[in-house]
Amino acid sequence: MKDIYPPINGKAPVLLHGGDYNPDQWTPDVWAEDMRLMKLAHCNAMSVGIFAWAALEPAEGRFTFDWLDRIMDMLAENGAYAVLATPSGARPAWLARTYPEVLRVRANRQRNLFGQRHNHCLTSPVYRQKTYTINAKLAERYGNHPALLVWHLSNEYSGECHCDMCRAAFRAWLQARYGTLDALNHAWWTAFWSHTYSDWGEIDPPSEMGETSVHGLNLDWKRFITDQTTDFMRNEIAALRTYAPDVPVTTNMMGTFPGLNYWKMAPHLDVVSWDSYPRWHKPGPDGAIDDIGLASEVAFVHDINRSLKGGRPFMLMESVPSATNWMDAAKVKRPGMHALSSLQAVAHGSDTVQYFQWRKSRGSAEKFHGAVVDHVGHENTRVFRDVADVGTKLEKLADIVGTTVRPDVAIIYDWENAWAMNDAQGPRRGDKGYLDACKRHYRAFWDRGVPVDVIDMDQDFTKYKLLVAPMLYMVRPGVDERIAAFVRAGGTLVTTYWSGIVDQNDLVFLGGWPGGKLREVLGIWAEEIDALYPGEANHIVPDEDNVLCLSGPYAAHDYCDLVHVEDAEVLATYGQDFYAGRPALTMNHYGEGEAYYLATNGDDRFLSDLYAALCADLNVLRSLRADLPRGVSAQLRSDGERTFAFVMNFNAQPASLDLGTASYTDLLTGEVLTGVVELGVYDVKVLTA
Ligand code: GLA
Ligand code: ZN
Q: Which segments of the chain have a pLDDT < 50?
């Protein structure tokens, strides 16, 4: 059966290629040259207007669209499209001077001066009105323009504001959430340190000058910031919809940026997009370049973006064609890496490859940031040739537009869980290693070419065979029942130490961890948890004849949960310390399914062996029927009938891959491949059967 999404915009049923384009920084003679170069670079989509407010409304109520009219027309004349931005990411000086309320107030209650970008109040009626007005004007003017493809809302929404209006909005948000102060005082456990509130007006957002110890407050403030940002964004969308109801909207997100819960924003967008800036080419401990671990981490984030709308292709809105100037070392991409990293995004579900930036800025903070067109101004550069090469490759992949993957495996990475866990004091300071744990579990699948969805705990679990929930510290209402139903119906659950600890208010579950139904599903009770010092290790010693055929022993770090088995079977025990011999890995048969509990943070080899066994037992979907050499990744896209397996070599050395008797065509070269195939350094092949 066909399983395919429509293109982002039916006008352009192709993979999009282009980048942030700032003609407002340049003169018209340069624009003409840009058009010539865009064609040479095989670019077809330019993101325009991102920080162009001052150029579009140089004085209050005086609009100057002529330059943008010309750019939109030039794009259309040259067969290209516009990803047209709303300008709210930065405001003109006149706006800040006339209406100081639009500027952000910091947690210390000091109002920012005019400057920077992303420096606006989320609540200010003036800022919302001004944004609405200019967005509506853009929509009215360009809503039917042949070049318009998608709206790019603002830029990288982020940050918070502590002005009087935002604080009042927060209190109103709390009133709507809790109804009564009693309910809020209970949820926030305010009897602690005499923090009971007797009036809504006494509540202030967290601040170093005031409250930071009430975890419920911290958590709700973060939720409020996401909601208020989303509300701000919806006001922007409403303005666009007045004149351009059918043009899709997106906003460029930032991966696992902790400041916003993207799962709350995604439903309001037609397509998800994100900005990816990996630090490629870092030397490993032995001094040799090692991109493999990072490649898996980037894949994890791509998979979040694909999962945010249930598998719908996303947009790689920004990436760098060469060096990212703000990094410790602005490394250039080594030959081959540009195509590899670009096609990796496509492999995981992106229907675009876009850059920051098209033409390198001449002045200010980003004048040394990588760009397609360098200060030299012509096309005879290595970077330009690399970009043009990606453009020609994307043209060969038009058949994959709208295709996706339907994995059998999901990993839960949940923003609220991260917020709550990292705010806690204990079982270690600061970052608890949650994101890292999710990425390490993910790596075991990436190594074997097993596609994975990365979801939050509110998503549907029933479509998966294997649900992996590392450190599921927070369990929101109903999640434990849904997990129980999933396992009862035959699903396999893997969860770990430090799961089932608090509810949605960050209040600890009483009566034994893991709380709610999880204890019954897992068949264990976790009595206490030992935190290990950095470098300290225990061991996981598998029982002989364990059902997973694990041999071990494996090193274990960071946390050792001391659990009692209730219904579960013990598959492995601790090797050392006073708890040697107590359970380190358990499995419980529950209904038709199985629930595994990893009481400690096993090393990579442990996770690899564990998931190798589970993937084989459960016969999960693989991207390619082949054993992948280390550093070679495979990722599937399919239209439900035809399959496209991206094979990517992240090694700085060649690798060879045995395809066995199967025969494939590489869409990039047209070559027919079977048996052992050689992969060059950073090579990519797109295999179709
Ligand atoms: C972000 C922004 C861009 C640009 C790049 C530079 O992603 O959205 O405007 O500043 O960083 O890497
Ligand atoms: Zn504010």
A: none
Which of these, 228, 250, 230, lies nearest to 240 by C-alpha position?
250
pLDDT at 216: 98
Q: Which CATH class is domain 632-688?
A: mainly beta
Q: Torsions phi, psi of 459, nearest 5?
A: -85, 165
Which of 22, 274, 318 for mutating ligand 1's site (highest number of atoms within 8 Å of CB)?
Answer: 318
Answer yes or no: are the C-beta atoms of 495 and 518 closer than 8 Å.
yes
Cα dist from 140 to 54, 243, 304, 383, 400, whole Å: 19, 5, 34, 38, 33
* 50 CA distance to ligand 1 middle (Å): 11
Report the C-alpha gap between 485 and 505 in whole angstroms: 24
Q: For residue 171, which phi and psi values (nearest 5 degrees)?
A: -65, -40
| CA terminus-to-terminus distance, the chain | 17
Q: What is the whole-number distance in angstroms between the Cα of residue 158 and the centre of ligand 1?
A: 13
| Residue 480 CB neighbours (<10 A) | 22
CATH superfamily of 16-166+203-400: Glycosidases (3.20.20.80)
Q: Which residues of 580-593 are buried (b: 16+ CB within 10 A; e: fewer)?
A: eebbbbbbbebeeb
| pLDDT for res 642 | 97
Question: Is 409-618 a CATH 3.40.640.10 domain?
Answer: no
pLDDT of residue 315: 99
In the chain, where does the domain assigned CATH 3.40.50.880 lie?
409-618
Instruction: List the catalytic residue out of 318, 379, 416, 594.
Output: 318
Query: What separation in Å is there between the alpha carbon of 324 and the centre of ligand 1?
Result: 9
Catalytic residue among 57, 101, 156, 594: 156
Counting DSSP H helices and E strands in the chain, the numbers are 17, 25
Distance of CA 540 to the CA centre of its chain: 32
For the question of residue 156 being annotated catalytic, the response is yes
Q: Is 167 in the pocket of ligand 1 (CB under 6 A)?
A: no
- Compute the distance between CA of residue 635 and CA of residue 405 in angstroms, rounded to an integer: 9
Q: Please, which residues have CB less than 5 A from ligand 2, an ion?
A: 121, 123, 161, 163, 166
Three-class SS state of 459: coil
Report how far ligand 2's centroid is from the alpha carbon of 533 (Å).
42
The CATH 3.20.20.80 domain(s) of the chain lie at 16-166+203-400
- CB burial of 54-69 (b: ≥16 within 10 Å; e: otherwise) equals bbbbeeeeeeeeeebe
Cα angle 615, 621, 627 (rounded to 5 degrees) comes to: 70
Any ligand 1 atom below 6 A from CB of 277: yes
Please say whether the beta carbons of 169 and 162 come within 8 A.
Answer: no
* Residue 592 a catalytic site member: no
Ligand 1 within 6 A of 156 CB?
Answer: yes
- Please tell me the residue having the least CA distance from ligand 1 atom 6: 356
**Ligand 1 pocket check for 303: Cβ under 6 Å:** no
pLDDT tens digits, 357-379 = 999 999 999 999 999 999 999 99
